[in-house]
Amino acid sequence: MTLVSTFVLLALAVGNSLGWLTSVLRVVIAIGSGVLVWLVLVYHVDDYWLFFPLNELLKVFFE
């Protein structure tokens, strides 16, 4: 659930900063694209790479 919300919020942030979110339909498309990117990454990318920044941050603070 954490990763899907991250990608949805990222898609909304990029769309808003580029001025693409001018209607409800475009917001729904941005949410759908965030979910689609999440699905592709969850099924085709290893968990180590999805959580890589968190792993490196934890190593810096706890080692």
The overall pLDDT average reads 86
- Please work out how many helical segments DSSP would assign: 4
Q: What general outline do the C-alpha atoms trace?
A: elongated
Count of the separate structural domains: 1
Q: Any overview of this molecule?
A:
This protein has 63 residues and is an all-alpha fold. It has one domain (2-62). Helix content is 83%, strand content 0%. The chain is built from four helices and no strands. The longest helix is centred in the middle third of the chain and has 21 residues, at 24-44. The mean pLDDT is 86.
Topology:
Blueprint: H1 2-17, H2 24-44, H3 47-50, H4 52-62
Helix pairs in contact: 1-2
Keywords:
elongated; mainly alpha; 63 residues
Summarize the structure.
By secondary structure, the chain is mostly helical.
